[in-house]
Amino acid sequence: MKKKRLFSLATILLSLSISGCFSTGTKTDDDDDKVTEGTYMGVEKGHYKVDSKGNRLGDMEDHVLVDSNGDDKHKPVAATCALPGKGYKKCTVCGRFVEYAIPKADHNWVASTDPAKAASCTRAGVEECSMCGLTRETGKPMGHQLVPDTSNIDGVTKEKCTRDGCTGGTVTLDISKAAGWNDATTKMNGKSSPNNKSTWNVAGVLEDGIYDIQIEGVMSYSSHGDRKWYNMAKAELCINNTVEESDSLDSPDTTKEDDYRYFFKVNDSTVINPTVKESWSDLGYGAETPAYGYICKDVTISGATSFCLYHGNIGFSMIISNIKLIKH
């Protein structure tokens, strides 16, 4: 008797579970209507017909799926750049919803609306993802929009930027007009004053600020293009072999030489040493065409009345024509 009751209970439960997946083509797999002859039973991979007792009739058939907006129980989730989403298709025969994955979306980059993040003369613009807020630089700095300034001195040419809000500009120092060494056609390779420095009067022209410094020059035929601007330190400065100093270890002519191949002084007292690590050839210097290359970046200059270019006691050098100070 107990076995019969258990069997009857199991039959009832199975019948109830199956009936929840039946559809006539206009009902979903969640409908609980009474099963009728020819009703479709929908499962994940397809559907098949059943009779009024739930018995399977025929082989499994493929779903006929169309895009769907889902319903209260099947809610699509849009993909973002942080997380994947999910969507649904619906079978037009059995009414079953079939879920599918939507891959993560690409970032949606838009220009930042923050004025402080707009491109400027010295800074690239910033764009941000409208979904996650991630930011990145885009494009390049606009560069200064320069016009000649009226406060020039012989050998010192000043230009100012005319863009709104920019206080930047350039000051160009002509070697041929310098006090001391002023031969713009021969390499500066002297080891004693005045042939190891060029000096300019910059009073009232070189404003206080932060500057990048370039040298315009042509490689002399005896120079080595693989030497780095930063590869100028004395050998004893490299004892600790730090990351910054190790580059100078590959130069055979640093021992017992001056600290740097080239360096600057403001008012002949404040020393400005090179900070750029590129080699001369990387900066574009060749043996024929003059080129500008950075030797210093982000240098603070204040109270300048004179500016000097010094050459160290090292035999390899360039023919230098101009020094350009670019104000941020």
Strand coverage percent? 35-45%
Which consecutive residue ranges, at least 5 long each, have pLDDT under 50?
1-32, 232-257
The count of β-strands is 21
Main sheet: strands, sense, barrel? 6 strands, antiparallel
Looking at the overall shape, the CATH architecture of the largest domain is: Sandwich
CATH class of the largest domain: Mainly Beta
Task: Quote the CATH topology of the largest domain.
Answer: Jelly Rolls
Write out the strand line-up for the largest beta sheet, numbering strands in chain order: 11-12-13-21-16-19
For the terminal residues, how far apart are their CA atoms? 97 Å
Continuous helix count: 1
Round the Cα radius of gyration to an integer and report it. Answer: 39 Å
> How would you sum up the global shape?
elongated
Can you give the helix content as a percent range? under 10%
Order of helices and strands: HEEEEEEEEEEEEEEEEEEEEE
Query: What's the mean pLDDT score?
Result: 79
